[in-house]
Input
Amino acid sequence: MSDFPEERLCQRRSVLSELLRQMPQLRSHLYFKSSLTALSHAMEDRVLAGTDRPLLIASFQQEKFYRQEAHRYRRLGEISDQVYVLAAPDTEFSDLVSEYDLIPFEHTDALASEWHLVAIGAQSSACLICREKIVPPSEIPVLPEIDASRRFEGIWTFDRQVTIAAAHILLDRIKGYRPDLAAKIAQAKQEYLVAVPTIPQDHSASADAFVQRLVTYLQARQYKLLKAYRSIEEKEERERLVNTITGAIRRSLNSADILQVAGQEIGKATGVSRCLIYQYRKDDRAVTISHEYLANSGINSLVGKSWNLADNPIFKEVVTTHESTSLAEVSVTKTWQRTLSRQGISDWLIVPVLHQDRLLGAIELHQHEPSPLPWSDDTINLVEAIATQIGSTLIQAESYTNLEYLNQQLEALDRTRANLVAITGHELRTPLSTIQVCLESLATEPDMSLEMRQVMLNTALGDAERMRKLVQDFLTLSQLESGRIQWHPEPLSLEECIDLALSGLNTRRYNRDLPKIIVDLPPDLPFVRADGEWLVEVLTKLLDNACKFTTGKDRIAIQAAKTESMLEVIVADTGRGIAPELLQMVFERFYQAEGSLRRTAGGTGLGLAICRQIVNGWGGEIWAESAGKDCGSRFHFTVPSI
Output
């Protein structure tokens, strides 16, 4: 029992310190963790490649480090029965059964900060005895490829005397933790730890074998580093590409600019022959190519050409799965094989541009080489990452466009509101004032003559009718725009509809002479298919509009002509005419050429808007023509014929 405290103290000492105390001529050196790993693996490989049954002692700082090398030590244990592995236990290290002896040591032991490997054979020896050196944070460089934060100081040598001394220290340490191995340790000391080997050593052969193993390990390590560097370069290229596209997005929300930049950058980054990017809307059977990257001028450009999607088996698969698809993943018909041959395409990849599972477009990569390389995962992942970015951008651009459209609509509504206020104020206030004056005169002047009374009544009735028409036009336009109108198409004679419109026109009250109206229709005019009430309404409003802007000296002509499946009706006049830049605006609601408060002709500006809604309702078109001011105007509309 008297030896126990000294034995415990010995277990806590540093093996490196003890070795340097016994051999003061030795000088320790500094090693990085990666260097020690290379040396250790080279030493182990030399043992595995040799024919000796050596003594091998390995000390790991922690059990988790040993587990990374456990498979190597199982192979070493098959070569020799004198293999010892020390480590600070983390789990059930002490209970493991293996081909070699496991020695758990206490975490407070100096071994917990050391790294040892001793190998002694009949003709070779080597040892690595080192301990971890604490490095101040200020001295740790930022080098991702080297674990420079972990450094060790110690001895590495082929010298047999030094190796034997280190083995003595470690075997004594093992005996302290595993007394049950005393006999085996005594055998190891007697067999291996002799000052002079019984068989001469061939140091050059030993060193050559070690160097070969070390070089092999370092080459494998270098290959891994090169792969890591390539991976880093690819990631940097991917980030650069994404940043380029992101920069284009920030400079402009124009989808055309974004797609053009993306196509060029993807083509350069992937090294393909051609890269196409296009937008897609549901049920599109073809698209017109606007954005293309070509690697060389020997490939035919597709810009401006129609690109078939309906018969493309790769695109069909993309539409179905919403996943990237290549030519090798689909079955190709003979017809499509001829298409590939004609285009000179040897391989094809389509990556969908998606946003929330909505297909917005596609990125196509083409190869034209006779023996194309297969599409790598890195290439597909890169293009998919960019496609995701493009998808978000297209949605932003679409939202921006919609916002601009809504702003324009709001501005138009604001103008409409202002016109509505001005027009209704004028159109309602004026007749109401007239009616009020007439009724007050009739009520307060009992001696008024019968002739004057009749004038007052006629004036009041005329303005009441004017107000009724205003309200009726509002209601009619509202019903047409909301789609609440029930159409009742039937075969009709255009001539009869014109007669009804003229009859209604003659009953209206005008304070001036009307122009001469001429009906000039071909004798063989076919019937039209339309709702008679609404057809008469269109004719009436066009004739009323012509009468407002003509004088008694002008003329109005009603003409018709047959076209394919439609009948074109023309109402022409020789009146004021319309400026060419206003021809599209005359069909807008509340539009009046003279302004709402300075016009000489009455009306609300709703008549032509109502005509457009009616004509569009039966599938026709309406438009206006005029050579300019005082050159008259011609209003055309089409109606289905039989």
About this structure: The radius of gyration is 49 Å. The chain has a mean pLDDT of 82. The chain has 15 helices and 21 strands. The longest strand covers residues 358-367.
